[in-house]
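Bumping with the actual sequence this time:
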Amino acid sequence: MTKRSPFITLEGPEGSGKSTQLRLLGKRLRGANCEVLETAEPGGTPIGLQIRRVLLDAKNQELCPTAELLLMFAARAQNVDQAILPALGEGRIVICDRFTDSTLVYQGAARGMGAELVYEVDRIACRGLVPDLTLIIDIDVETGLARAHRRNQRAQDVETRLDEQSADFHRKVRAAYHQLAEDEPRRVKLVDGSRNEAEVAADVWAIVEPLLAN
C-alpha cells in the first residue's frame, strides 16, 4: 500500500497565533519544494465558509451546543471530501487550521458534550482520517483573548461568537488541549506560543521537518 503524504493540523486557544504559524509553515514547506494545501476549519470550501458564517457570527448566540457540533462536522465533512482527501491522494501535504481535536476540546470538553459523542460523529464525517501530526500553539487564556479582541477590533470582525465565551470556557479549552497532548504524545505536540513569531516558527519547523523524511 502506498503511504500517503502527511496531514498536519495546527490547534490552539483563541489568539494563540496558530493561523499565522500555519501560513509560515506553508511558506517553509514550499521553500523545501513540497506541494502543499493550506485549509481551515470551519471553512475550507465554499459550502464550509457558508457554515462558518452561521457558526461564528456573534449574532447567533442562541445556537445550541448540539447544532454547533453538527455544523462543525458538516463543514468538516465537506472539507474532507472536497479538498483534504483529494489533495492527500495527489501527494500534497495538507496543513489544516483546526480539525476534530478542536471539536473535542470546544464542544466535547468546554461545552460538556463528551469525547464519545464527538468521536461518534467524527466516524461519520471523517471516515477514519486522523492527522499524522498535530501542533498545539499554546498560550495562556488572558493573553490569548486580549490578542483575539485586538485582532477583531482591527478587522471589524463579526466572527467572534466563540471569542466572546466566558474566560472559564476558554480555560476549559486550554486544559483540554493539555490533556490531549498528555494522552497522545506521539501525535500531539505542545508549542509555546507566548514568544515571537520567528521563535515559535522555528520550533514548529523542528517538529515538522523529521516527518518529511519518513
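The C-alpha cells above came from a reply further down the thread. The chain is about 55% helix and 10% strand.
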